Amino acid sequence: MKKLLLSSCIMAMAMSASQTVAAEESQFTTSGVMMGLSNYLWRGQTISDDKPSLQADLMVEHDSGFYLGTSFETYRYEDADTVVKDYEIDYYGGYYLMATDDLGFGFNAMKYTYGDGGDTVEYALSVDYQAMNLAVNYDQDVEAWYTEINYSFPLFNDSSLVAHAGLFTDAEAYEFDDNGKVADTAYDVALRYSYPLLSQLDLMLEASYHEFNDDHYMVGLAYNF
């Protein structure tokens, strides 16, 4: 149960500040974000039962295009009559290449680990052309594919709106209920808005819809460092 590929969505909106560390023959860029969100949304679903989530991410990138990072998220879910509060720590790495000023390619591998036990690995391939991002994700644990397209619209005062659409082509692995049957496919759509309140502080809003879930909404703050 988890979010994002690096070139997509909230990560792209939130991680706008960086710090450069120069080595003798190489250059590294570090960037990070801390977020307080009213909801933890992932591909049209709530991972936190529509309750708040604290999240953070730290990434180190080499000027060759290789990068490594880790992220932390809190979430919650209902188990029988009990509400379970838990956390997630993720580790990722990959490579990103700008082929031209308008065209970029990326590969990412991310391992998700959960406080209550269990882990999984997801791989992603992405293509960016100008303001459009296309990504294909494969979850090794459930053996399922997810494809998404995102388009970013620059707006007033350096704010931005991202339109997102995604498709689970192996939806049966997630057991989505389609009128009493397990769905073969499922889609989700979302609108995500980011507004810079200060030089390192962003306001974030999101509304999302999943074919077999309720609508979900999020408001949050992201501090970039």
Describe this structure in words.
The protein has a single domain, classed as Porin, CATH 2.40.160.40. The chain has 1 helix and 17 strands. The two termini are 26 Å apart. It is globular, with a radius of gyration of 17 Å. 3% of the residues lie in helices and 64% in strands. It has one helix spanning 9-14; strands spanning 19-22, 27-37, 41-42, 45-46, 53-62, 66-79, 82-98, 103-114, 119-129, 132-139, 144-154, 160-168, 177-178, 181-182, 186-196, 201-210, 216-224. By secondary structure, the protein is mainly β.
Keywords:
two-stranded antiparallel ribbon; 225 residues; mainly beta; disordered N terminus; Porin; 17 strands; globular; 12-stranded antiparallel beta barrel; single chain
Q: Which structural class best describes the helix and strand composition?
A: mainly beta
Strand content: over 45%
Series of secondary-structure elements, N-terminal to C-terminal: HEEEEEEEEEEEEEEEEE
How many helices? 1
Protein name: Porin
Organism: Shewanella canadensis
Keywords: Signal
InterPro entries: CHP02001 (IPR010239)
Question: How is the secondary structure organized here?
Answer:
Layout: H1 9-14, E1 19-22, E2 27-37, E3 41-42, E4 45-46, E5 53-62, E6 66-79, E7 82-98, E8 103-114, E9 119-129, E10 132-139, E11 144-154, E12 160-168, E13 177-178, E14 181-182, E15 186-196, E16 201-210, E17 216-224
Antiparallel strand pairs: 1-2, 2-5, 2-17, 3-4, 5-6, 6-7, 7-8, 8-9, 9-10, 10-11, 11-12, 12-15, 13-14, 15-16, 16-17
InterPro entries: CHP02001
Signal peptide: 1-23
Protein name: Porin
